[in-house]
C-alpha cells in the first residue's frame, strides 16, 4: 500500500475515553496508565470534547486549577475537528498542520471509532523510510 492510498481507518488507534465529570486527577492517572497524550471526553457515551496533556498542564500552571476539584469538562477542547474513516493521509496531515492539533478523532455516523495522533504519523513515516532504505539496499540500481 502506498502512502497515497492510506486512509484514517488504516492508521487510527483505539481511543481512550473519560467521562466529562471526571476530575483532572482521574484524567492525569488515565493518561499516565495508558501512555496516551489525549483522552476523548464523553457524556452519556456521546463525544463532547478532547483533553490533552497540554490542556491539563496549562490549566494547572496558568489557570490555577485544582486537580481534585476541577472537572475534565472545564478544561477540554469542545470545538472538535474530526475526520471520517476514508479521509486520506494527505488530508489528515493538512488538517493537523493547519489547525495546530496533535490528535484527531475518527468518527463514522457520529460514532467515535478511533483516534490519530501526530505520533502515529511519525511512526508511519519512520516505517516508510525503513522500507525505502531496505529497497535501496536490496536493489542497488534503485538508488541511482
UniProtKB/TrEMBL annotation:
Q: Name one Pfam family in it.
A: CBS
Query: Per the database record, which ranges form the CBS domain?
Result: 11-66, 76-131
Instruction: Recite the UniProt keywords alphabetically.
Output: CBS domain
Where does the source fall among the domains of life? Answer: Archaea
Q: Where is the signal peptide?
A: none
Could you tell me which PANTHER family the record lists for this protein? Answer: CBS DOMAIN-CONTAINING PROTEIN, CBS DOMAIN-CONTAINING PROTEIN CBSX3, MITOCHONDRIAL
Q: Which protein, by its recorded name, is this? A: CBS domain-containing protein
Amino acid at each position: 500500500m502506498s502512502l497515497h492510498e492510506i486512509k484514517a481507518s488504516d492508521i487510527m488507534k483505539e481511543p481512550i475515553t473519560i467521562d466529562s465529570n471526571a476530575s483532572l486527577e482521574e484524567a492525569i492517572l488515565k493518561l499516565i496508565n495508558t501512555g496516551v497524550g489525549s483522552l476523548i471526553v464523553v457524556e452519556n457515551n456521546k463525544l463532547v470534547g478532547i483533553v490533552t496533556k497540554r490542556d491539563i498542564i496549562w490549566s494547572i500552571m496558568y489557570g490555577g486549577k485544582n486537580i481534585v476539584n476541577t472537572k475534565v469538562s472545564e478544561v477540554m477542547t469542545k470545538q472538535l475537528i474530526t475526520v471520517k474513516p476514508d479521509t486520506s493521509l494527505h488530508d489528515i496531515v493538512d488538517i493537523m498542520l493547519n489547525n495546530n492539533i496533535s490528535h484527531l478523532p475518527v468518527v463514522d455516523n457520529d460514532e467515535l471509532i478511533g483516534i490519530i495522533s501526530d505520533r502515529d504519523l511519525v511512526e508511519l513515516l519512520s516505517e516508510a523510510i525503513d522500507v525505502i532504505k531496505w529497497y535501496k539496499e536490496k536493489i542497488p540500481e534503485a538508488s541511482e
